[in-house]
Amino acid sequence: MTKGPALLLPVLYLALFFAYLFGPLAIMAITAFNSAGFPRVSPWECLTFGWFGKLAQDTRLLEGIGNSLIIGVGVVLIAVPIGLAAALTLSQVGPRLRASLYTVFIAPILVPGVVIGLSTLIFWDRLGAMIGADYDTLFYDGIFLTIAGQVTFIAAYSMLVFLSRISRFDPTLTEAALDMGATPTQAFVKVLLPFMAPAIASAAVLAFLASMENYNTTVFTVVAESTFTTVLASKVRYGLDPSISAVAVIIVAFTLIAATVFEMGKRRQTRAASGLLALDRPVLRLIAHPLFVAGLMAALVGGVVWTGANHDSSVCEMQVLDDKRAVQERLEQERRERIEALTPAPSAPSAPTQSAPGGAFAPGSLAPGGSAPSPAPSPAPAPAPSAPGGAFVPGALAPGGAFAPGGLAPSGSVDN
Amino acid sequence: MTKDITLDYVSVQFGDYVAVDGAHLTIQGGEFFSFLGPSGCGKTTLLRCISGFQEPTAGQIRIGGKDMRGIGPNKRPTALIFQNLALFPLMSVADNIAFPLEVRGVDRKTRRRRADELLELIALSGQGDKRISELSGGQKQRVAIARALAVEPDILLLDEPLSALDLKLRQHMRRELRAIQKQVGLTFIYITHDQGEALTMSDRVAVMSRGRIEQVGDARAVYDQPRTAFVASFVGENNALTGRVLGRENGLSTLDLGLPAPVRVATASGPGAKLAPGAECMAFVRPEALRPCAPDAPNAFPATVIREEFEGAQRHLVLETPGPGPAAGPAAGPAAPRELRMTLVNDDRDAAFGPGAAISVGFAPDMACALPPGELASA
Ligand SMILES: Nc1ncnc2c1ncn2[C@@H]1O[C@H](COP(=O)(O)OP(=O)(O)O)[C@@H](O)[C@H]1O
Ligand SMILES: [Mg+2]
């Protein structure tokens, strides 16, 4: 009897904890499969994979992702060596110089990203102006500027990763290598670098992720280009639809798969190191092999994609549309009847008030109808002309234009 | 092949701190030479000077007559075995051993062959593919030696290589090291704070204290004819008695050590011979030189047994005798008790006495020595 509540409390706490952590993610993931035009779980309309398809055709987003990848790779290639060099320097200087150098190296992490972005922009612009560079040179290139801006603080991140590893390095190993006749370069390449390899890998991953998800600095330095985050941000501002949820689902799935495969690989390594590899159970060994796990995951994803590609939600969506139209017609009908009934007593204000809720809902519920032949009220505002050059117009590119009611925005492009 | 190593007044200073102070000696090619001294006396620093990791602040190091100043550790004919071995944990045993060949651009097949040869020398044949972490302490030790030998050095430098091993293994490795040295015929410069190690293995020993070399000589000379109070008290066990020289004749000095009667100590040669009558001095009597004797025998004095430590083959008696202890000063009155240690072989029939017994002990004049007062090794 006494055990019940005692056990209940931790369980409840855990449930709340995990709900808090993963609830938003779960809900977002679900919205990616609802055909409703606004990311929501209820009312549930139809199971659809259409948002993923829409994503695949969103050239702006794809271009942003492409830029983000280029920037990410560039940042990794520059920030990781700089971070390693900084960590090596710190490990070799005296304690007093070390303290002040450390402060200098770490400063970019403490400076707000916005400031780094702005100062990068201004610095290169001034530099370009000084040598009279054209606007199509590196000094005004969004991708270059973004790499330059991000490297300043991501190099400091990777330095931190390297510092923790290097503090466990036994410097007599380098001395031993030198004593055995190695040149300093050989000692570095054959002894220190292999020791640092795991840290280099994690610093690279960290740098790449930090670059991919950066917004504060990037939004200033991209200038006329766009990256994954800036495209997403403009989407949020100028009309949200579940294709954003689809992006999230893809990212979460990718992260989960990578983490699982990595973890399997790591466990295998530790077990191999301690000689605990299940040599006598080949099946178990195969199942636990990271490559096998990766294959399994790939197959799973392939299956889902195939199912999605072959899933046809148009019948259901048509049904939903018809239902809505019926509801709207009924409401319209009721309104008309009420107006007729009230004609003798002219209480004009009450009529709009009454109809307001219906009216307000209507456009929203109509929105997803975009996938079917567009109903009358959604002649999308003039298809947005390509952005007129400005640096921060990207938002204007949002389909449907800046002032389209949120729900309507995507309707123009959902046709497929 | 055999190159002499000359340290020509080598000094090393870290800021104001003098870690090595005017080391001056020559080590012959092919010799097993040890530096013996307590922890912190500058042994490692001196070894790092020889291997090239540390430039002396003064003095010169010559190997085979060649001045080593400005020659890096990778260009010297030395190989150092580090105190912590410094084996490369990410490489296999064979790769560790072949590392010196790899960095010299030797091809893979030759490397493998040489590694196998060396593995055989250290009795680890067939274990080349193991990881370093899979080896025992003694095996790691031998791999470190093999790796150093792969350098084909003229001089092998060993920095307390056995300090991490347990007693049994240490004694085994002493013999093994000595055997390897005989086999390869290299000069070994060995560093240790363990006098047992230094005395059993070395051709010659240099005893160090506070950066200074106190005495150089073979094991017997260092043990039997210490030249300073530090050496006398650091190498082996010793009883120190402070006192004054009364007179000297025929190579025998008469000393007043605060005992009921003066004692006579041989001072035919060495620093003791320079002690003038009236000078302060320290006399050293080894525990095994003290013997029970008749009260009227020469050099006899009374003592009381306080404790007995039984050790099987021999037993140690802790005796108390009046007089100033080793740390003598005006404060220590002449009657302050002091402790002496006496070691007896266990079959001494005539020494069948235990704690509390009042006995007479004495020593032969040539089994003790008199030295100018100096700093003693702390126990
Ligand atoms: N790089 C250094 N900087 C400052 N002091 C040092 C340095 N290396 C050694 N010392 C000092 O020199 C003294 C002798 O050290 P070391 O040669 O390692 O002694 P041992 O090997 O005999 O124990 C020690 O007091 C140590 O603190
Ligand atoms: Mg040392």
Automatic annotation (TrEMBL), chain A:
- List, alphabetically, the PROSITE patterns matched: ABC_TM1
Q: Where in the cell is it found?
A: Cell membrane
Which CDD domains does this chain map to? TM_PBP2
Report domain ABC transmembrane type-1 positions: 65-262
Start-end of Pro residues biased regions: 374-386
Q: Name one GO cellular component term.
A: plasma membrane
Q: Which domain of life is it from?
A: Bacteria
Q: Which GO terms describe its biological process?
A: transmembrane transport
So where does this one cross the membrane? Answer: 7-33, 69-90, 102-123, 143-166, 187-210, 244-262, 283-306
Q: Name one Pfam family in it.
A: BPD_transp_1
Q: Which UniProt keywords apply?
A: Cell membrane, Membrane, Transmembrane, Transmembrane helix, Transport
Major localisation: membrane
Region (Disordered) residue spans: 338-416
* Keyword DNA-binding applies: no
Family per UniProt?
Belongs to the binding-protein-dependent transport system permease family. CysTW subfamily.
| Entry protein name | Spermidine/putrescine transport system permease protein
- The protein's organism comes out as Albimonas donghaensis
Automatic annotation (TrEMBL), chain B:
Q: Which Pfam families match?
A: ABC_tran, TOBE_2
Q: Which SUPFAM superfamilies match?
A: MOP-like, P-loop containing nucleoside triphosphate hydrolases
- Which GO biological process entries does UniProt record here? quaternary ammonium group transport
Query: Residue ranges of the ABC transporter domain?
Result: 5-235
Q: Which InterPro entries match?
A: AAA+_ATPase, ABC_SmlMolc_Importer, ABC_transporter-like_ATP-bd, ABC_transporter-like_CS, Mo/tungstate-bd_C_term_dom, P-loop_NTPase, Transp-assoc_OB_typ2
Please indicate which superkingdom the organism of origin belongs to: Bacteria
Q: Does the keyword rRNA processing apply?
A: no
A GO cellular component annotation here is: ATP-binding cassette (ABC) transporter complex
Q: Which PANTHER family match?
A: SPERMIDINE/PUTRESCINE IMPORT ATP-BINDING PROTEIN POTA, SPERMIDINE_PUTRESCINE IMPORT ATP-BINDING PROTEIN POTA
Q: What is this protein called?
A: Spermidine/putrescine transport system ATP-binding protein
What is the originating organism of this protein?
Albimonas donghaensis
Q: Which UniProt keywords apply?
A: ATP-binding, Nucleotide-binding, Transport
Decide whether keyword Transport is in the record: yes
Q: Which GO terms describe its molecular function?
A: ATP binding; ATP hydrolysis activity; transmembrane transporter activity
